[in-house]
Design goal:
Layout: H1 3-25, H2 33-45, H3 48-60, H4 64-90
Length: about 90
């Protein structure tokens, strides 16, 4: 199971949602740093393409349960991290 990729994706999702919450809260929506940091830096940090390759490799090796777990863990954990970031930003 590729837990390294999962960890990076979860941390990246949490950081990106936190950044967007900070930008919205401080009315910095026109800031050029929004795209630079958000999409550029954090987009490069997360590893969706690696997640895809690892999942396809698991499927090619007929490791069906690990592939399904990888999909659900990445999507579910990233959504949970984003939700947690929103809740923490609410204070």
């Amino acid at each position: 199971m590729p837990f390294g990729t999962l960890a990076v994706n979860v941390v990246g999702s949490f950081a990106l949602v936190t950044l967007y919450g900070f930008i919205e809260r401080n009315e910095l929506t026109d800031s050029p740093f929004r795209a630079l940091i958000g999409v550029g830096l954090l987009g490069a940090f997360t590893t969706f393409s690696t997640f895809s390759v690892e999942t396809l490799t698991l499927l090619e090796n007929e490791l069906w349960l690990k592939a399904i777990a990888n999909i659900f863990l990445n999507v579910g954990a990233c959504l949970l991290a984003g939700w947690l970031a929103i809740e923490l930003m609410k204070g």
